[in-house]
Amino acid sequence: MAFYAASHRGLITPAFVPASIEVYPPDGQSVDASVPLEMSAQSSLLRCAGNQVRAAFALCALQTQRELDGVSVDEPLGEPDPSVRAVRAVCFVIGHSLERELLNPTWVVPAEYRQRFECPAMDLTLDASNWNGREVRWEHLGGLPAYLDLVLFASYCLDGMSVPDAASIARGDYRVLRGLEPMDADAADPTIPGYGSGSGRLRGPGPASSGPAPGSGWIAPDAPPEPAITIASQASECGPIDDFVADVCSTGAEAMSLAGDLYASYAQWCLDQGYLAHSQRKFGLELRARGYQRKRRGKGKHWWLGVRAPQI
Q1: Which domains does the chain have, with CATH numbers?
Q2: pTM of the model
Q3: Which of 77, 104, 152, 275 could form a Cys-Cys staple with 170, CB 3.0–4.6 A?
Q4: 216 pLDDT above the threshold of 50
Q5: How confident is the model at residue 245 (pLDDT cuts 50, 70, 90)?
Q6: How far is CA 83 from CA 39, 116, 120, in A?
């Protein structure tokens, strides 16, 4: 989700996705490995990010259903607690649908599951009565954050935690784990880790929204804010090597740069100037054509000799 959100906000552009990378195994020798993700347009990066989220969701859904089946005694619809019953039923339907078709999934809802499921503990209502045969979309689940809440809620319930405590934690209130009094669900507390910056979750504590996520779908979950795409991500011209060297680099017999650092400086320069960046391989070929040499020096690292760029 971090990759997805950053690419939609223009914080990650194709310039930052290398075509090759240096890998350093335990023996200390570097190995050049190709990375089959070379991209020339922001649209391809966004498509890749969407596919990454889609694949992660599918894996999570299938594994969650296997775990629930493995540790549960009752069938999903036989769970006595309405919140647990709703979550288990939804997880079953998701897993059942994705098992049939991963790439372009449609809902496969058995007749007995075509009903309205309410999860009072999570303040969430899911209506599966008309899902069958329709394309799987995030808004059917109340948005991807709501689905992640449900998975967390189910996992804590299966660990033996009470339903109210499991719901509090799933919504972002971790005081229960610390043995503290639960906070008011309507009072956001910035000192408690939630779906905010740096915590790994997606939003602040509080009830999960039962409303649809506008514009969301199987490829683009939860409609991020209007993309703030940078100039560079919309460019079609690659940054000229000669201009980069002239603008920011020093040259001469004593100048040298680590290969990775030099390319990172070039990619940042392209971003600042409104260019696309050449792939790392193309960048290296262009430098060689201009007489610069790439050598392996201490600890197996690759250096460019004759050119040096400032650290970014």
Answers
A1: 2-40+235-308 (1.10.10.10), 42-171 (no CATH)
A2: 0.51
A3: 152
A4: no
A5: very high
A6: 44, 12, 6
